[in-house]
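Q: What structure does this chain adopt?
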Amino acid sequence: MLLNTLNEGSIVNVDNFQDLEIIKRNIKFLKKEKCNIGIHVNFDLEKICPGETISGSDVSRFGICVENGDFERSLTLLKKLGLKVHGLHMHYSTKTRSIAVFKALAKKAVDLILQYKMADSLTFIDIGGGFWGGKQLPCKPTMKDYSKVICDQLKNAVSPDKVQLILEPGVSIHVTAIDYLYRVINVRVIRDTTIVTVDGSLLHNSPYMTTKQFAFSTNCNSALKIPKQIICGSTCIEKDRLLYLQNYNEFQNGDLITFHYAGKYTICKNNCFINCPPRIYIKDNDKYCCVRDMSLDLMSQI
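A:
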């Protein structure tokens, strides 16, 4: 698979020395002029942007380390094999999505390019993803802000006419384009709390089970206000809780709840734990077309 990918000219970002050893063992089968190899860079971003990376004080587990000399050794090995390094992959996972992070990533790419005289062979720099986007939020960077800080740095080492900048803005593009529609299938009262169960799961919106107050709308038209309601998914996981509502209209079986800006994980990180992945519909003006149907209609089972 890797050899076919390389020989077809697809971008392959090597992540570790095992990847490089596979290339080395199979060098006689490779069309060197077709190979489009990049290196996934690992460096201490947390030191530059304290408190901002997902890994925190631990090391990031991805990429080839700069500080211990592995990055330089990988360049040497590829050169000996007669293969050019065409790209740098700089993706990091962060908590903040800040401008400072992307400035640091771009600057590190520039430092490496200048230090190892890579400008002539580079054709792409993949800066990764993790942007704010989809809609403009107060006090959050826009794509224009990100673009400026990244490009201002990269222009110190490469020409935009020769080197392609690759972004991975998946979530920031499609998160606001998708709504997730739930239906209420059970309402019960436990002590002073009303538990409202829906025919979906927090797993579909947040596979890591981190609850936040999602933006939502509903067709619930009850005039009765309930002091405390918890909207829960239909799994056996206690943490499967989607909304905490106070003094909100009373939900009843059959009511619909729409979660907005639900495109982050609703399509790509589904599993079949208790519930099948939700159906996916595309809306075209006033028409809906079902493009995925792996779900079970729970109401028909009741």
